[in-house]
Design goal:
alpha+beta, single chain, 303 residues, three-stranded antiparallel sheet, rod-shaped, 8 strands
């Protein structure tokens, strides 16, 4: 009776050990691949949850199905326009076929790192510096296409995204680019200033044409300018009285209109009306009398 109890105890122990070794837990982000005597079972891919395998005969290997972000070491290269650059990137990938990722490649993460480095150097040699700096989306798409073609079908790993993080340029190239950008901004500033001067000259010419139609407008504009200058009260303004202003006031005075010839005669008449004093005789010369008074011609009646 005692021997039977011992045998039952040993049997229960082995059953417990067999159950413990046959039960596996697969996480939600993992998948399990079952190998039986070294061969992958057709239905050997186990999904997340509690699963069992045959002890001693089966072996299960878990594969992470999450997206992995892997940094690519900085690569030095010469662009198509002979500029030395240093570029680093980051690669996002995930396993879509766990059997291929385990069977066809020994270490898919290390292999993808090497593929990313070689592809990055290849793309650097094909592109120019301006494309690396301004057309990163195109470079990223080209990198992804090259890497995905090498990894998805053979290895069961899909490259989801490739991003260039930084492009390092030599110091001399940075200074040259800075001078180029400064010269470009200076050129734009000069063009804008010249264009403004051209438009202002056109406006001033149009304004001068309009002001020339009426002399009074010129005088009003002059007075307005004087008012604007005097508003600051921080300078002394010396303004001679121009003859045009006298003529302006003369024209503004109420008087009958007259012809230009009459105006010239009217201005000359007071000078002619003044009689010169007689000159005293010198020696035997007779005295010279003053010029007779010249009567002005009668003005024509205003129309």
């Amino acid at each position: 009776m005692g021997a039977v109890i011992v045998l039952l105890g040993i049997l229960v122990f082995f059953i417990f050990v067999g159950l413990a070794t046959s039960v596996r837990v697969v996480q939600q982000f993992e998948q399990g691949i079952v190998f039986r005597f070294g061969r992958v079972q057709l239905n050997g891919v186990r999904q997340a949850g509690l699963t069992t395998i045959v002890p001693v005969f089966d072996r299960m290997q878990k594969v992470n199905m999450q997206t992995v972000a892997m940094g690519v070491p900085a690569q030095e290269g010469i662009t198509q326009d002979n500029v030395s650059v240093r570029v680093d990137a980051v690669v996002y990938f995930r396993v879509i076929d766990p059997i291929k990722a385990i069977v066809n490649i020994q270490n898919y993460a290390y292999a993808i790192s090497q593929v990313a480095q070689t592809s990055l150097r290849s793309v650097i040699g094909k592109a120019d510096m301006q494309a690396l700096l301004s057309e990163r989306d195109t470079i990223n798409a080209e990198l992804r296409e090259i890497m995905d073609e090498m990894t998805e079908n053979p290895w069961g790993v899909r490259i989801e995204r490739v991003e260039i993080k930084d492009v390092s340029l030599p110091e001399g190239m940075k200074r040259s680019m800075a001078r180029q950008a400064e010269a470009e901004r200076e050129r734009r500033a000069r063009i804008i200033t010249a264009d403004g001067e051209y438009q202002a000259s056109k406006r001033l010419a149009a304004a001068a044409h309009e002001l020339s139609k009426d002399p009074a407008s010129l005088q009003l504009r002059l007075l307005q300018t004087v008012t604007e200058v005097a508003a600051e009260k921080n300078s002394t303004l010396v303004m001679p009285l121009p003859v045009e202003m006298l003529r302006f006031f003369d024209r503004m005075a109420p008087a009958e209109p007259s012809a230009p010839g009459d105006q010239e005669q009217a201005r000359a008449t007071p000078l002619e009306e003044e009689l010169l004093p007689p000159i005293e005789p010198v020696g035997d010369m007779p005295p010279i009398e003053a010029s007779p008074k010249v009567e002005p011609e009668s003005r024509p009646e205003a129309l």
